[in-house]
Amino acid sequence: MKPTLLILAAGIGSRYGGVKQMDKIGPSGESIIDYSVFDAIRAGFGKVVFVLNPKIKDEFKQIYDKRLNGRIETEYVLQELSAVPEGIVLNPERVKPLGTGHAVLVAKDLINEPFAVINADDFYGSNAFELISDYLSDIPTTSSDYAMVGYKLKNTLSENGSVSRGICETSEGMLTDVVERTSIISENGEVVYDDNGSKVNIDKESVVSMNFWGFSPLFFKQLENDFIDFITRNANELKAEFFIPTVVNKLIESNNATIKMLTSNDKWFGVTYQEDKADTIAKVHELVNKGNYPENLWN
Question: Is the overall model pTM greater than 0.70, yes or no?
Answer without folding.
Answer: yes
